[in-house]
């Protein structure tokens, strides 16, 4: 416990980050609340009806919490960082036939890299968030994200990309509680957000219509193309590749006489490949851009638990280096809907060993 030291708490206006600030103050830290203004534009109607974790609507709730806690509170502008590292990345990935995870990018490059840098500039010792995760220093000396006490709100998957320096200077007090207890703490402390609903959608696309957002942002409408099967036979016409993701079943508009899934997206030919349930399964997952967390290198003889998406339960696997920036993860039990652009996160003994971005096998060999 570093009582008396200064911690900047990223306050989204929600109950989790508000309780994080409360808990740290109770533990003796000098707490400063900060809301990161990262969304580009937000009109009054959007503020009223959508809210979210990063809009101007978050400021009012966070400021009210700071007043109750009697802590300093500031709004910091991170619009430029958010545009470059999250929105531009999100659009670029979808247009290249991949399915991005903007929360992972936001965590690494905005909520940590940018916020930590500014916090250190003003003399803070730590930053803190309201994530349901814990930080452990392992016997090998490395810091790692560890599972929270509740599987229902475990957020370790979206944090796999944090660096050792970031982890060393981060506090996550909420990871020691479940959601019900957090709300109870907030109510007992008189925090005005104790029963505020969680934000569920991507903050900058509150209506969930990713394709429309991309079309509006780029000024370029979707280009229709062909649905094809794995043998190249044309099955129909799609609305544009940004409307689809690997593993998708609903909304295809195809009557094939069997359950059909998107199994591949080909931006070069503007084709969406559709297949059966069996064709949507894979034992092999190729990964690039690996971030090592609890381990500095993976052991090919070690069994890990691999998660291929946020809501994936995880499955036993082993991982093998295939090149300078390429790993192949083998699952004995075939996994459904392995999606390029999403993250593969590997766990061992309850902590994050590391992870990277899923790519197509052809991408991983450098042949495309």
What does it look like?
By secondary structure, this protein is an alpha/beta fold. The protein is built from nine helices and 17 strands. A six-stranded antiparallel barrel has the order 12-15-14-13-16-17. A five-stranded parallel sheet has the order 3-2-1-4-7, with helices on both faces. A hairpin with a 2-residue loop joins strand 16 and strand 17. The longest helix has 20 residues. The protein is globular, with a radius of gyration of 22 Å. The C terminus is likely disordered.
Which descriptors apply to this entry?
368 residues; five-stranded parallel beta sheet; 17 strands; 26% helix; alpha/beta
Mean pLDDT: 90
Strand order, main sheet: write it out: 12-15-14-13-16-17
Major sheet, described briefly? 6 strands, antiparallel, barrel
Low-pLDDT segments: 44-51, 362-368
Gyration radius, rounded: 22 Å
Order of helices and strands: EHEHHEHHEEEHEHHEEEEEEEEEEH
**Beta-strand proportion:** 25-35%
User: Helix- and strand-based class?
Assistant: alpha/beta
How is this fold's topology laid out?
Elements: E1 6-10, H1 15-26, E2 30-37, H2 44-49, H3 57-69, E3 73-77, H4 79-95, H5 102-121, E4 126-128, E5 133-137, E6 143-147, H6 164-168, E7 170-171, H7 179-188, H8 210-218, E8 225-228, E9 234-238, E10 261-266, E11 271-275, E12 281-292, E13 304-307, E14 315-323, E15 326-336, E16 343-348, E17 351-359, H9 361-364
Parallel strand pairs: 1-2, 1-4, 2-3, 4-7, 8-11
Antiparallel strand pairs: 5-6, 8-9, 10-11, 12-15, 12-17, 13-14, 13-16, 14-15, 16-17
Helix pairs in contact: 1-3, 1-7, 4-5
